Amino acid sequence: MIQQKNVTNTGQAFTLEGVVASMLLISVALIFSLQITAITPLSASTSSQHIENQHAELAQGALETAEREELIQMLLYWDSSSSKFHNSDSDGEYRVDAPNVEFAQEVDRVLINQGIGVNIDLTYYNNRTTYSDTTINYFTSGEPSDHGHTVERSVPIYENDPIYDSTGNPTSQNVTETDFYLENINEDSELYNIVVIKFTVWRI
Amino acid sequence: MYSKKHKQTAQLIIITAFVLALTFLLLATLLNIVIYSENQASRGVAVADQAAFETHTDVNKSVKGLLKEDNFNNYSRSYDERQNSVTRGIEHIFNVNKIKETKNQRLYNGTITETENGTRIIQDSNRNFTNQYGTENWIVVDSTENTRNMTQTVERNSLHQAPNKTVWSVPGYMIFNSMFRTEFDTSSGTWVVYFVEDVSTNTIYLRTENPSGSFYNDCAISSSQATVNYSEQTVGNQDCPALDFVTELNNPYQIRYINSDEVEGQYHIHTSAELGSGVPDYQYNSVSSQDSPYAVRSIYSVEYKQLYISEEVEYDVSVYVAPNQLENESV
Q1: ipTM value
Q2: Which residues pair with B112 in a beta bridge?
Q3: pLDDT tens, per residue, chain A with 204 residues
Q4: Closest CA to A154 of B293, B63, B259, B250
Q5: Nearest to residue A62, comparing CAs of A101, A99, A107, A95?
């Protein structure tokens, strides 16, 4: 009887040892994986795709529902005297304050103030035959996180579209009468240029 | 030191530990797969469809805008010049989208399959609706398949006056012969739209007579002027069932103004008939003078094919663009 009790105790000890050993192994494996990839709350993972989905819908909704007039106002908000966008930084980019145009103000109010980071980049075309392009940063909140999402919308600029003053109102000058960042790459038609707006959102 | 039995037990424990560890890892992986699959199921196709739809919408909006810009500028352009201008512009839109999609590892290709010439007929200053010579009964459009953006803004005081609407509503009543009316003459008969002012209520009434001589209900607006939008079937921005017939017109049809000295106001018609053939150019003032009424050569519509291929979606579609033309409408 005494021998039988000893055997049972030994069995329990072995089982416990086994469980502890497995936990040890898992812990080592976990520490190892954590060390080789820097996982933060903003890192992309299989479980963060819902956040990506939300961002995709958010970005899409913001850009798609914007009227062309609102986007034109943003793209042609040009200060001819300083050859950059009105009240932008010395390099022509907006960083802290959104420009005084309807779309950017709406983005500032609805997204940035709610802790959503926003970058707006503009791509336009320089040459009618090679279609070489240039991309500029228009508005920058920072570096997007892994589950940020970018949507694009191409906006045609026509020859009769006006340049906008610092208050956001159209001036009497249209794009053909102003020297600014866009060139007329389609002189045979009313089309002046096409700007692709790249709109990136992510959770800060 | 240790007995053979103890060594075997130790080995057993290590193996058990490995089995347990693997089991936990397997469970974790399975859980991860479930989460991943669920995410993919709720995401994949929608995102791919969305990208295709975005491109489709972008191109469509750009072509519509270009068509509008071209038609509303450079009035002196010939049809060839307009065709050339619109074609170049649309090809540029296609090329830019092709480059944009290529950068996103997708294929896009657009091809214009047809451009249709048309005419914009304009009276943009207030006067009666007679032709350039003052003729009261005249053919506005001789023969057309489609018309869009057809509007008439009429001044109430200029219309023929009736004592009250119950009198003028009687078919065959003599004042009908004096009223301003717009006629749509088709192969199966003529639709007539009458305009009158009810002096007892200061109301503009509009009434439609079908080819068999029956009347629809009135559309009325108590205002000093009313804009009749045939394309949207509204009077003063309110639905007007009396204009529903515009979706039933047989092609081709003729548009006429009768008693056009019994009305004053402005109008605009965009028709798919060419100036000089379907639209009689002698009825209008020269486009250079822009004295009302005048007619401008235009591009009525554009049809193009577009192909969009991504890893998930293949989208091949033919698109018809005639800005502001409603679905299934003739006017």
Answers
A1: 0.74
A2: B304
A3: 555 666 667 777 778 877 887 888 888 887 777 666 555 555 555 556 677 777 778 888 888 889 999 999 999 999 989 999 999 998 889 988 889 999 999 999 988 888 889 999 999 988 777 788 899 999 999 888 877 888 889 999 999 999 999 999 999 999 988 888 998 887 888 999 999 999 999 887
A4: B63
A5: A107
B309 — phi, psi (to 5°)? -130, 125
Helix (H, G, I), strand (E, B) or coil at A5: helix
At B208, the amino acid letter reads: T
Q: How far apart are CA B191 and CA B249, in angstroms?
A: 9
φ, ψ dihedrals at B200, nearest 5°: -75, -25
Domain positions in chain A: 1-37, 49-203
**Number of neighbours of residue A61 by Cβ within 10 angstroms:** 12
Chain A interface disruption, residue of B92, B100, B102, B106, most A CBs within 10 A: B92
For A99, the token pair is: 């420009």
- List, in sequence order, every residue forming a beta bridge with B257; answer none if it has no partner: B138, B182
CB-based contact (8 Å) between A53 and chain B? yes
CB neighbours of B234 closer than 8 A, spacing ≥ 6? B228, B240, B243
- Closest-CA residue to A124 (of A87, A86, A155): A155
CB-CB: which of A131, A151, A156 is closest to B95? A131
Residue partners of B204: CB distance under 8 A and separation at least 6: B154, B156, B159, B195, B196, B197, B198, B220, B221, B222, B223, B225, B226, B235
Inform me whether the C-beta atom of residue A64 falls under 8 Å from chain B C-beta atoms: yes
Q: Could you say which of B50, B85, B99 has the minimum Cβ distance to residue A190?
A: B85
| Best to test chain B binding among A3, A188, A200 (most B CBs inside 10 Å) | A188
